[in-house]
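Entry 14. Ran structure prediction on the chain below.
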Amino acid sequence: MSEWKNIGSLLLEHGFIDDDGLKEGISLQREKGMRLGEALVELGKVSIDDINWVLSKQLDVPYVIVEDIHVNIDLLHKFQKNFLMDSRILPLYETEDEISIVTDDPLNKSAMEFIATSFEKKVNISTGSGRKIEDILKRSFKQVGLPELVGALSGIIDKIKDTSFYRLDFLLDERSCRINAFGVGVMKNMQEIKSHFTNEDVFRAFDELSIPFLYEQSFGSNSRFLAVFPVFNRGTMVKYPAIIGGFGLFCPETTTFADSHVNGISDVFPYQGPVPGYPYLATKGNQYDYESMIFTVDTVPAEFHDFYVNTWIPQKCPSCSGAGCPACRELGYEFEKIEGVYSSGDLKEKLKEGCHGKN
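Output, structure tokens:
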């Protein structure tokens, strides 16, 4: 008999279904090419918990009430987040020779072999509700990783608040999260956290700090890149056109159009296609009105006259020549604030006085 016919027999034996219910399940199984247990759940004949309980009987493995589990945070740290979430595996405890887990799929042979090989221990398997395992994993990872990420982000923001950095880049892979700051041609590695985080974890960290932002994201085969533009400054503009710099983007207190994703700002909404001006900010309409736009230093037109400028200019630290030292708070640069009306030539001269090549 097939594996899933045995499960059907067990469901009958334990009174979860009757003969007519089993026939309906087999009919749907054949029609949709699905597992018998999945077909019976879809028909409302049994629940996922019923299936897991029966599966535990079939394979002679313990069935665990997942809500009653105390999560071993130290053990959780030893696994990659994506592996546990994708496999719906919750580590329980380990001894010198064994490691115990609960899963909704005890037949996932490749996952069990991966754990056994990684830990060089025997794997003791229990089965339980996959949905509840997933819920506990989400809560546990948020509890474990988010405070560390929030603390790191808060410290970085405090360090670069009065600088020309206006963007934070997150390079995320299975084992680490690298955070770089960027602005006015300068890129600085700020911190690396040896832990796995998702894009959603980064978003939650900004939410915890009550910082709205715009963002761009891209995905590689083994890593993800997330560029976050905090919208740290809001207010009324004194003069247009303007070049505004400092940590985070400046958004006037009016409706703003964006061509990237938006988080935490009520009066910014998507607009199709990038336009000159702030990266990832746009104006409404097809005609670009330079006289009513705000720019960062990186994005200003090549030639301009009478722009209002209120920004920070990076200059290599004279003490360490960009290497990083206590005098520049390890940033490698000092930052001079300038304000006034400038032409493109005036601003270029100011920028030349500093050296803002990449670190």
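The longest strand covers residues 223-235. Will compare against last week's run tomorrow.
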